[in-house]
Amino acid sequence: CPQNAPPALFVAAEQRMVLVACGPYTTSDSIAYDPLADLVEVIGRDRPDVCLLFGPFLDAKHEQVENCQLLGSFTEVFKLCLKTIIEGTRSAGSQLVFVPSLRDVHHDYVYPQPPFLYPELPKDDKPRVHFVSDPCTLDVD
Asked: How does the average pLDDT of the chain come out, rounded?
């Protein structure tokens, strides 16, 4: 895509199912990502064409984040979260769009926010996984 053009999400020209979810994807008393596991299950079951996933993915306001009670760095926990979503939805074939939040503790705290960087994204997933800025414009066609 040209730098200023919205990413085109290639979906058939008929009716589309779009799932929209907003973080945090954890409960307030645990960083175990149980709600995220439920979301991945719904995506696998319902097979939406496009999933718009808004952060925070690792919430700066979470008590365990504020008290540094994580088992890894902020970036490591975030990457594990992404890996869980991407691998867990692979069989559904859904287009995934990740939108950052100012509460994503590992990401740039500026507005507008740049897209997430995830160089570990497997080559086979690149056509269906999109990282966009906040704000952004999407063309779901």
From this structure: 88
